[in-house]
Write a structure and sequence with these properties.
By secondary structure, this protein is an alpha+beta fold. It has 3 domains: 3-98 and 192-222, 3-Layer(aba) Sandwich (D-Maltodextrin-Binding Protein, domain 2); 103-190, Periplasmic binding protein-like II (D-Maltodextrin-Binding Protein, domain 2, 3-Layer(aba) Sandwich), CATH 3.40.190; 226-291, 2-Layer Sandwich (Alpha-Beta Plaits). Helix content is 28%, strand content 32%. The protein contains 9 helices and 16 strands. The protein has a 7-stranded mixed sheet with strand order 2-3-4-1-5-12-6, with helices on both faces. Strands 9-8-10-7-11 form a 5-stranded mixed sheet. Strands 14-15-13-16 form a 4-stranded antiparallel sheet. Helix 3 packs across helix 4 (131-140). The longest helix has 22 residues, at 203-224. It is flat. It binds phosphoribosyl ATP and zinc ion. Residues 14, 17-19, 56-58, 75, 77-78, 101, 103, 168-175, 190 line the site of phosphoribosyl ATP.
Length: 297
């Protein structure tokens, strides 16, 4: 597939941080292999014309908007912050959410604060690393707060006396609790996603993007799917099919010299222990649940 004049795509991912490992993993699962450069900032695509740029996550939307890269994996929070900071709500297109890096941008106030509703934030000092997104979302709720931008340690601003409220990313809520803050309202929910810039990227690059997205969809589908194999009494087939999550038509094979059958199926939904226990109660035995590596519909 490598030839000198062939179009190549550049994908920007986070160099190190919360999203970097899973971003690499998802591309690897799409069949991409890279020759890593010494400085580790540029990885050349070996058997597929897709190269990687390893950067700080905040730079990814800018690299897309400025045309340096065609694709990027970044949190939706950052993509929106950068777009809104440039005074626009477009320019970046979310091609696919990736199912990791989940968090929420929330307004939090000191536990002892009298503020109980974001409506009361009018004219109040709110510290955040996401000034454009916070301003935009508060404004949409009719609130004009006094936004103060901090690049880090936002959660200590209220105890330092520099803000009355914060707007910060939350995942488990541990940081808020440790700083005696209570979550007042979720402004925005985010996860890592594959982005491109909007506009015409040319036929060849678009064809590469389409191929990558089709593989990505397969990866996402496979991740959510399990291959289930079991033995069951012939007359329990209808009940067993009903109990297999996300299955309409299982493969059914006779077991030589037995009144039992082998049932194989790809379950499109999570398979819980409760499902297996219900299958066993319906007469199933030798139940095996296997991961699905790749899928192409
Ligand atoms: O160096 P670089 O600029 O690339 O990385 P970074 O330090 O800016 O980002 P990084 O790696 O911390 O986060 C990258 C992305 O991960 C974010 O943009 C989000 O999309 C996503 N993400 C998911 C999070 C969190 N969860 C998260 N919990 N980003 C940050 N946090 C922080 C939050 O700011 C707060 O300080 O974790 C703390 C809260 O966590 P809990 O679990 O205590 O609630
Ligand atoms: Zn960052």
């Amino acid at each position: 597939m490598n030839n000198e004049n062939q179009a190549r795509l550049r994908v920007a991912i986070q160099k190190s941080g919360r999203l970097s490992e899973q971003s690499q993993e998802v591309l690897k699962n799409c069949g991409l292999r890279f020759a890593r450069s010494k400085d580790k900032l540029f990885w050349y695509g070996r058997d597929f014309p897709v190269d990687l740029l390893l950067v700080r996550d905040d730079d990814i939307p800018r690299l897309l908007l400025d045309g340096v890269c065609e694709l990027g994996i970044v949190g939706e929070n950052i993509a929106w912050e950068v777009m809104l900071d440039r005074g626009r709500e477009d320019g970046l297109e979310r091609l696919s959410p990736l199912g990791f890096g989940h968090c929420r941008l929330s307004i939090a106030v000191p536990e002892q604060s009298g503020i109980t509703d974001i409506k009361e934030l009018d004219g109040v000092r709110v510290a955040t690393s996401y000034p454009a997104l916070t301003h935009n979302l508060l404004q949409k709720s009719g609130v004009e707060a006094e936004i103060s931008e901090l690049s880090g340690a936002v959660e200590i601003a209220p105890s330092m006396g520099t803000a009355d409220a914060i707007s910060d990313l939350v995942s488990t809520g541990t940081t808020l609790r440790a700083n005696h803050l209570k979550e007042l309202q979720v402004l925005f929910r985010s996860e890592a996603a594959l982005y491109s810039r909007t506009g015409d990227l040319g036929r060849e690059k678009q064809a590469l993007i389409d191929l990558l997205i089709s593989r990505l969809n397969g990866v996402m589908q496979a991740r959510a799917s399990k291959y289930v194999m079991l033995h069951a009494p012939k007359d329990a087939l209808e009940k067993i099919t009903e109990l297999l999550p996300g299955v309409e038509y299982p493969s059914v094979m006779p077991l030589e010299g037995s009144d039992r059958i082998a049932v194989h199926a790809v379950c499109g939904e999570t398979v819980f222990w409760e499902h297996l226990e219900a299958l066993k109660a319906a007469g199933a035995s030798a139940i095996l649940v296997l991961p699905v590596e790749k899928m192409l519909a």
